[in-house]
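Agenda item 2: 2-acetamido-2-deoxy-beta-D-glucopyranose complex prediction
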Amino acid sequence: MDFSLNCKSSRLFGIHLTSLTCKCLVLIAIFLVFRTFCMPSISGYGGVRVEQNRIDLIQSESLALDSGYGIRRDKFLEVPQIVWGLNNQKIAFARACLTARLLNRTLLMPSLSASLFYKEVDLLQPISFDKVFQFERFNSLCKGFVQLGRFSDVSNRSRVFEIHKGSGRRWTIERDLDQLREAREEPSTNEYEVIRIVGKNPFLWHDHWPVKDYARALECLVLVDEFSKEADRVVSKIREVGRDIRSAQNGKDTDGSSLQQVPYVAVHMRVEIDWMIHCKKLEQRSKMSEICSSKEEIMERVGNIAGLETPLIVYLAVADTLLGNSSILSGWKEGLVPFEKKKLGVDGVYKKYPYLIQSAIDYEVCLRADVFVGNSFSTFSSLIVLERTQKMIRTGMANSCGTDVMWPSYAYNILGESNGPRRWMTNISDSSLRAISYGSNAISCSTS
Ligand SMILES: *[C@@H]1O[C@H](CO)[C@@H](O)[C@H](O)[C@H]1NC(C)=O
Ligand SMILES: *[C@@H]1O[C@H](CO)[C@@H](O)[C@H](O)[C@H]1NC(C)=O
Ligand SMILES: *[C@@H]1O[C@H](CO)[C@@H](O)[C@H](O)[C@H]1NC(C)=O
Ligand SMILES: *[C@@H]1O[C@H](CO)[C@@H](O)[C@H](O)[C@H]1NC(C)=O
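Presented output:
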């Protein structure tokens, strides 16, 4: 479903609709269509549950129009700078949002961190949220659910109530939640215009919310134009190369086919030495074997995915240390043509930016791929699959674990059908993000 197309055509008929109104109308329409046509025909593994989620999601978006629901705009929550890798920052940001929602407060736009040097505070390179993600867009997509504000919205910053978050083993999930509930219910605290959370990376730890709430907050994150255009550029480059390879094989001219129709597979290939050491330890500690995959195993399993039409470009999202390393570029099944940033000639696009932005661009490239293959123990892969699952649910797939779906995802570390990787979907009804984000092989799809 392409919202922008629908919305553009509405303007053609001379009706001026704001994009939010338009989007909501489209969503209501989709909801009605689903209710009419899809509900009775649901069957198969996990189908009913998925169906229910879709309805819930769409309903909650339609409800956002209802002004009765909402978050107070005159009370604020301030949080410390958000740190670590892109995935940790996204999760921590979502937690900050959900904390603000619990307190029924507007979250003051936090600083993210452009670099990965989390131990040396002076190297953290704070970067304002709105330099990376669209501020207004966030608020319009998340309207009624969570709300971001600016420091200039606060009338008097001199009276702030500080909540000190503990850390370490004794700071349990229960204590963390009790403290928040107390702040919400205690009138003398609640009256403060600003509540400030203080503590060492408080949002990296405790999880009090179901996957659905995270999904709802995360989907409101849209990259600012500058960076989404860079992602467009990389995706176009991948498709162009794919088109050239196809037309070279078919001996036809390239002009005929649209770039949009040239598919690509993205593989988040974690085979660098640091990861291999980490995942071997993880396997020992958790007594599980399906965590690490060698590059040979990844190549073989990706090659066994059913229904891939070759020749086909395989975009490898790999660590910088592996760029230009011939060992990951050879050994692929005939017809699968691997590329990474360097071989594509787009490493220059990335080099202009700090770590966080590079990571965000790669995330987009994987998100938009026709097929995505990742490691179920990687948070980066898991967040991509979460977002792709939501996209899939919107299109009304009856049995989303099948192979004949749009935007399928796979986990290469878990064996699936015909020696391929296992199909992977996020269980949106899971009660905690932990199950899907920090080391799990719960990937919802079983082999039949
Ligand atoms: C927040 O407070 C407002 C006003 O008191 C209320 O109308 C609204 O329902 C509350 N929202 C949530 C999410 O609790
Ligand atoms: C802000 O609050 C402080 C403390 O309550 C008060 O002394 C000060 O006058 C207030 N400033 C304004 C501009 O209202
Ligand atoms: C290529 O990557 C492998 C690990 O997959 C590593 O052992 C090797 O040293 C790398 N080669 C180069 C030239 O960097
Ligand atoms: C999804 O999560 C819910 C809640 O934890 C659980 O009951 C259900 O069995 C899970 N579904 C799948 C397909 O794993």
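Discussion summary: Residues 46, 427, 429-431, 444 surround 2-acetamido-2-deoxy-beta-D-glucopyranose (ligand 4) (CB under 6 Å).
Owner for follow-up: CH.
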